[in-house]
Every structure is written in structure tokens, then in C-alpha cells.
């Protein structure tokens, strides 16, 4: 056994709470108690460690506890301070690892509730093991009770209630909280009827003076989390999956309909991250006359049945379009899609040369898409842990940063490869006819153009978008009909080209 003598032992303060409470700074309160303990006992406060909003049963997420374990060899003879041993560990494996490391370096524990423990001594080791076993038993029994209650609630058609209060409901998770429920209905109308963004919903909720159930300011991510919940429609679930044969308890009434909830979840899944779930050909690619990208969303009159593209600057800043004439555009979606399709086809009809996609490209693309899905799932899991109070904001951001960087890299590479793959398919039909010819007879140009149109129409939406982004720059100006589109791009002919009119007639 190693022994260390020190007239004033160094104190390593560790505080942890499982669920962050915005109203009560529980970790700060623990640290205050530990500083007072260090002062009373004559310890020198060397380092402080804190894990806010992380359960002891999740050691991989406890960054500061893991840092404490790594620092122990640097502080031989030190004393670890905590409010109770359960703050340090709630499972036997982690408790034993801590005991072994402390015994090796002559480190002791001193907790507010249980007093001093020297894990290198027989009595100290025994008491630490006993408390560890009791904590483990308590943790497991608590889990059993929670699972039993959750199973009973599911059978009764009630929501899972061992979690923070959901937005729109009271603390019982069942009773509607009127002011918040009204904001959920407002968000439903903004998303489904008006085609607004999550940012616009967030702004509306903030202006209404609303905060998250934990008292935080709304973000687009937290709005998304709140609007995805099945509890908004009083749908009994297991995890995130609706239970097919269970009806909601009569006391649990829906805030919005199940159909609306399903449509919102589908919409938000498509909007969730860059590079996934696109639903329009031109959204984010074509440009308004002001220079901002145009996005899909909204209707051309509530009862017209025609969808439109709007200027994103107009949408995000809630500009009244009737008072902004000459600055921002809207356009019927079918007109813009037709103009974009014609731009891509015409580009390939007159592009002088290009190369085929490299061999093995499809396999590499599939591998990257699989990795991207995995990275996005990890980001989603971190976000859920953060929003449920299991992960502090600092830890969430630090763990998300490298994943977000990798996500952006993969999305960019996949976009480039998808464009190359779609490019090869378009060139297959035009290469022989157009490789070294500047003009074509009318009949030949018309036939090739029709074939290109068939190929383009048979592609997936992501391939179509990749081709559009790579080949043409479309700007929506003022006016009516097709004349309002200005299309430029490499390979596009001008009206002075001899073959231009032939192709247009085709």
C-alpha cells in the first residue's frame, strides 16, 4: 500500500446531478457545500469537476468524471470530495475501478453524507463495497419500478411520465396547458398551411413570451423536438413508435389531430438536416431576383391547390410581399420546375464534351451514404439526450462539433458524386450524337432532346437536383409565365447559336 503525507491534502471536488434543473442550480449548490467542507477540514481546493444533467448509470457521457479519473495519478495523497458516494458511481464496475485507482495512489474520499473513507484499508474497502452494492440495488429497483409504471401506463393508454414535462402539458403529462397548447396549434398552421420554417415558429413562440418547459429560450432544434412529439396528438407509444392496438385514455385529449402530427413529423424529417429528404426540384437552388435562394413552401392561394416557391429572405423575415414589389419573388412550383428541367436538358444537348463516371463510384457513394446516415443518427441521439436534460449544452456542443463537420464533408462529397453519376447517365444518350458536332438537323435534335427528357424524368429527385445545381443558374424575375426566368450556365446556348432554335422547336 502506498502512503503519502501532506500537511494540507489537495481536495478534488466532484458534483453531479442526473437531471438539470433550470430553476435550482443543484450542481452549483453541491460545489458550494463541498467548498465549505474543504474549508472546515483544512483541505486545499485543487480542482473542481462537474457533470450537470448526466446520470451515474451513463459513465461514457460523464466527461468530467472521466477527467477526474485521468487526473488521479497526478494528485497522490489527495482526497475526493462529494456530497455522497452515489454522486461518484452507481454501478459496481465503476466503483471498483475508482477504488483500485485511489488505493494505488493513496487517495481517500470524504463525502458530506457518509464521512471519510480510505479504500486502501480493509474497513474502508468493505464500506465502499457495501455502499456500492446498496446504490446498485437502489438503481436497479428504481429502474424496475419505473418500467412497471410505464407498462401500466401504456396499457391504460397514458403517456410515459418518467421524463421532463412535455411542452403543451401540465406536470402530469396529460392535462393540457392552454397557453402552450395554443402555440402548438399555431405552429401546426404555420408549418402545414403557411409553409413557414422552424425559425419562423421559434420567432413566433419567443414573441409570445414562451420558453421551453425547462425555462430555456426556444431554438429551431427545440421547436422541432417539441413538434415531433406524439403526445401532441395523444398517441400512446412505446419509445417513439405508436402502439397499434392501444387507445388513448379519455383524460388524455389531443392538442392536434393524429393526421396533423403525422404530417408534421414527415415534414420535419425531410427538413431535419442538409443533404437529406429533399421534396422539391428547385428548392434552395433557384434564386430570387434579390439574390437569395428560393424555397418550397406555401400555397398560391389557400384553395388553389398549387404549391409555390418563395424567396427565402421573404419567408425567414416575414416580409409582406405586397409591400415589397420589385424586391422579392414567388413563383408557381410547376412553372419553375419546368424551366429548370428545360435548362438541364438544353445544357446537355449542347455541352461539347464530358467524361463518364469512374468505375466503382456507385459502391463508394453507397458507403458514404451509409456513413452519413450513421453520423446523422448519432447527432440526433445527442440532440435527444440534450433536450431531455441528460446532456449539458457544453457537452452536447463539444460532442456534436466533430460529427457536424463530418456530416458536412460527407454531404458535399455525396452531392458531387451524385452529380457525376447523373451526369454520366445524361451523357450516355448524347455522347455519340453530340461529341464533335456543333449543330444538328431538326429531327435529330428533337429526338435527342426527347430522350434526354425521358432520362431526366426517370431519375430520382436527388440526382435531378444535383444536375440542376451543377449545370444551370436560374433566377426568377418579375413578370408572368416563362419569360420571367433567366437561365445561364456552362454549355447553355444563346439565341445566336444556329442550333438553338432547332432544339427549342423539338
Structure characterization notes:
The structure is a single chain. With about 500 residues, the chain is an alpha/beta fold. It is built from 16 helices and 13 strands. The chain has helices at about 25-40, 65-70, 85-90, 90-105, 120-155, 180-195, 200-205, 220-225, 260-270, 310-315, 335-350, 360-385, 395-435, 440-455, 460-470, 500-505; strands spanning about 10-15, 45-50, 80, 110, 115, 235-240, 240, 285-290, 295-300, 305-310, 330, 475, 485-490. The strands form four sheets. Strands 2-1-3-4-5 form a five-stranded mixed beta sheet, sandwiched between helices. A three-stranded mixed beta sheet has the order 8-12-13, covered by helices on one side. Residues about 1-5, about 320-325, about 350-360, about 430-440 and about 495-505 have low confidence and may be disordered.
Amino acid at each position: 500500500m502506498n502512503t503519502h503525507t501532506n500537511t494540507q491534502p489537495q481536495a478534488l471536488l466532484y458534483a453531479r446531478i442526473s437531471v438539470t434543473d433550470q430553476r435550482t442550480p443543484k450542481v452549483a449548490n453541491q460545489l458550494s457545500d463541498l467548498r465549505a467542507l474543504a474549508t472546515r477540514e483544512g483541505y486545499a481546493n485543487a480542482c473542481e469537476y462537474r457533470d450537470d444533467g448526466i446520470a451515474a448509470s451513463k459513465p461514457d457521457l460523464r466527461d468530467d468524471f472521466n477527467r477526474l479519473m485521468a487526473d488521479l495519478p497526478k494528485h497522490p495523497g489527495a482526497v475526493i470530495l462529494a456530497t455522497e458516494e452515489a454522486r461518484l458511481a452507481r454501478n459496481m464496475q465503476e466503483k471498483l475501478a475508482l477504488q483500485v485507482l485511489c488505493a494505488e495512489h493513496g487517495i481517500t474520499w470524504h463525502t458530506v453524507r457518509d464521512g471519510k473513507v480510505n479504500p486502501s484499508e480493509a474497513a474502508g474497502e468493505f464500506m465502499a463495497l457495501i455502499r456500492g452494492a446498496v446504490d446498485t440495488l437502489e438503481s436497479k429497483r428504481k429502474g424496475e419500478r419505473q418500467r412497471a409504471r410505464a407498462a401500466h401506463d401504456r396499457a391504460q393508454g397514458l403517456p410515459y411520465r418518467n421524463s421532463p414535462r412535455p411542452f403543451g402539458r401540465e406536470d402530469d403529462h396529460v392535462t393540457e396547458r392552454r397557453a402552450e397548447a395554443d402555440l402548438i396549434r399555431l405552429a401546426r398552421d404555420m408549418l402545414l398551411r403557411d409553409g413557414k420554417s422552424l425559425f419562423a415558429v421559434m420567432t413566433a413562440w419567443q414573441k409570445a413570451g414562451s420558453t421551453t418547459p425547462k425555462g430555456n429560450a426556444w431554438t429551431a432544434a427545440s421547436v422541432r423536438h417539441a413538434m415531433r412529439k406524439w403526445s401532441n396528438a395523444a398517441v400512446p407509444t412505446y419509445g417513439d413508435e405508436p402502439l397499434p392496438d392501444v387507445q388513448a385514455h379519455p383524460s388524455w385529449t389531443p392538442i392536434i389531430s393524429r393526421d396533423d402530427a403525422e404530417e408534421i413529423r414527415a415534414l420535419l424529417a425531410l427538413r431535419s438536416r442538409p443533404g437529406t429528404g429533399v421534396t422539391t426540384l428547385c428548392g434552395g437552388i433557384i434564386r430570387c431576383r434579390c439574390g437569395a435562394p428560393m424555397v418550397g413552401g406555401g400555397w398560391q392561394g389557400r384553395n388553389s391547390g398549387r404549391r409555390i416557391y418563395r424567396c427565402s429572405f421573404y419567408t425567414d423575415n416575414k416580409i409582406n410581399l405586397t409591400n415589397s414589389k420589385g424586391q422579392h419573388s414567388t413563383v408557381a412550383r410547376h412553372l419553375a420546375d419546368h424551366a429548370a428541367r428545360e435548362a438541364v436538358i438544353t445544357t446537355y444537348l449542347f455541352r461539347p464534351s464530358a467524361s463518364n463516371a469512374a468505375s466503382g463510384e456507385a459502391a463508394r457513394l453507397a458507403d458514404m451514404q451509409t456513413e452519413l446516415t450513421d453520423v446523422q443518427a448519432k447527432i440526433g441521439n445527442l440532440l435527444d439526450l440534450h433536450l431531455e436534460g441528460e446532456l449539458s449544452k457544453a457537452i452536447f456542443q463539444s460532442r456534436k462539433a466533430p460529427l457536424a463537420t463530418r456530416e458536412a464533408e460527407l454531404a458535399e462529397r455525396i452531392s458531387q458524386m451524385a452529380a457525376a453519376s447523373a451526369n454520366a447517365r445524361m451523357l450516355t444518350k448524347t455522347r455519340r450524337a453530340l461529341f464533335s458536332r456543333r449543330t444538328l438537323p431538326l429531327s435529330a435534335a428533337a429526338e435527342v432532346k426527347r430522350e434526354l427528357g425521358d432520362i431526366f424524368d426517370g431519375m430520382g429527385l436527388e440526382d435531378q437536383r444535383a444536375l440542376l445545381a451543377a449545370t444551370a443558374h436560374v433566377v426568377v424575375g418579375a413578370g408572368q409565365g416563362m419569360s420571367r426566368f433567366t437561365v445561364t450556365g456552362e454549355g447553355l446556348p444563346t439565341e445566336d447559336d444556329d442550333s438553338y432554335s432547332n432544339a427549342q422547336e423539338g
